[in-house]
Amino acid sequence: MCPQAAAGGRRAACRAPGAHNVCRLLSRRAHGFYAKDAGVAHRKNLGLLRKIVCQESTKFKNVWTTHSASPIAYERGRIYLDNYQCCISSIAQEPRILYQKPKCSKSEKIEDALLLECPLGEMLPSPSDYKSSLIVLTVRNWLLRLSADSGEILEKIYLAGSCCKFRYLSWDTPQEVMVVKSAQNKLPAAARQASIQQSVLFYLAVFQVLPLSFIGMLEINKKIFGNSVTDVAVSNGILIVMHSMGLVRLYNFQAISEQFMEQPFDLGHEFNWNGQVGAVGKYPFGLPCNIKITDTPPLLFEASSLENAFQIGGYPWHYIITPNKKKHKGVFHICSLKDNALAKNGIQDMKCCSLEPDWIYFHPDMSGRIIHVGPNLIKVLKLKEVKNNTDQIEIAEDFTIVAKRENSVSLVSEITMYDFEQYTRVLRMVHLDNFCCNKSKQILV
How much is the pTM? Predict the structure, then answer.
């Protein structure tokens, strides 16, 4: 072999996946090998963390524990306790309190929240827009934007009066378009006994974020979408309508908003709407319902799935469902959105026996990978073309994380106690004992 070929072979071996151990990768990072591309640096850092977490010699040590009677939320290095009244930073060696707000009344209780981060390369109207903030929804239909570091109120919008109860926040497009959804409208018992019909099931209010601007509000009416509607969502420009028999129907939300928009409105501007005069997003008027769907929009896609479990993702586009029979609970089918064909190895079934069922979802990093989580196993799957058949896609295992359990009496006792204390949430912060070069890293479990 000529010297040039030998050198090329050595370089190829160095570039081969898994050719470096953690120490070598850390050394290369310290010498600036990945400095020219932020994406490469981020992937390498995640690869380092994966190697450390997965290796059998890694030991975890409890460095901090807290309890909360209400759900504990975690967003980008911040832990939220007591209905978002307390914020703790988890980035330091030991967690520290960023802010602690006074105990709020039931009328100020926060129903849901989303973390809002500054978009890159855009000019924003206020200096506070360049820092992370928290969008929260209160019981009284107030939408508030809070500073993520201090809890200070930066913006407030009144959504609606007593006609509906807004309860849920979600992303249509992450960090760009936000959806506020009401609880399902239900008539009082007296009205039902009087045979009064309720046709409006849900309200959806849609906002562009940073700067916060109102796109529109619409009703989900059973006269348009049918009597069997049980839930609704908006994601990636798609209106998803779920029905009681497990049917999931998809519609083009952008086309709906363009076709049925009666009049656009700006937050804070005066308006005269159906005999009401007020300011958009101000108390007591709130937001006008300016998207009126008068006819059933064109159907894009429909599928039948147990408990309406349905997800779309990957490249090329695929969807995940559970066959609509109770005996198939815990079985997931991964199919092509193009022709509904089941992918090769597309049936995923862990056959686990546990108090909590396994669950599956497309990775939120838009990589197309699929995360399948069981009681003691995490599988990371990927879509890939079948060899010698580019028209067919198969599901391949990328890597697996196994949680080894000790069959000790103390562990059994702890699990039993957890069953009795099911309403108490426990959060622990641990660090990796043997992180290379004696540097500790924290992860949340």
Answer: 0.77
Pairing outcome for strands 166-173 and 153-158: unpaired
**Closest to 110 (Cα-Cα) out of 78, 145, 77, 79:** 145
Q: How many CB atoms lie within 10 A of CB 184?
A: 17
Higher-confidence position of 442 and 181: 181
Q: pLDDT tens for residues 227-241?
A: 999 999 999 899 999
State which amino acid sits at residue 36: K
Phi and psi torsions of 26, nearest 5°: -65, -40
Where are any strands of DSSP class E within 285-408?
299-304, 310-313, 318-321, 331-336, 342-349, 359-362, 370-373, 377-386, 389-402
Q: Is the pLDDT of residue 6 over 50?
A: no
Whole-number Å distance between alpha carbons of 179 and 308: 20
The per-residue DSSP string of 369-380 comes to -EEEE-SSEEEE
Tokens read off for 333:
């089918």
The region, left, alpha or beta by phi > 0 then psi within -120 to 50, assigned to residue 441 is beta
Which of 271-275, 383-387, 426-430 is least confident? 426-430
Helix-strand-coil percent breakdown of the chain, rounded to 5? 20, 40, 40
**Averaged pLDDT of the chain:** 82
Distance CA 350, CA 379 (A): 10
Q: For residue 153, give the nearest of 135, 167, 166 by alpha carbon.
A: 135
Question: Which uninterrupted H or E stretch holds 8?
Answer: helix 3-15
Which of 69, 287, 310, 327 has the alpha carbon at shortest distance from 161? 287
Backbone torsion region of residue 423, taken as left when φ is above 0, otherwise alpha when ψ lies between -120 and 50, otherwise beta: alpha
Question: What 3-state DSSP class applies to 355?
Answer: coil
CA distance 132 to 74: 14
| Structure token digits, residue 27 | 């050394």
Strands (DSSP E) along 222-323, which ranges? Answer: 229-235, 238-243, 247-252, 270-273, 276-279, 299-304, 310-313, 318-321
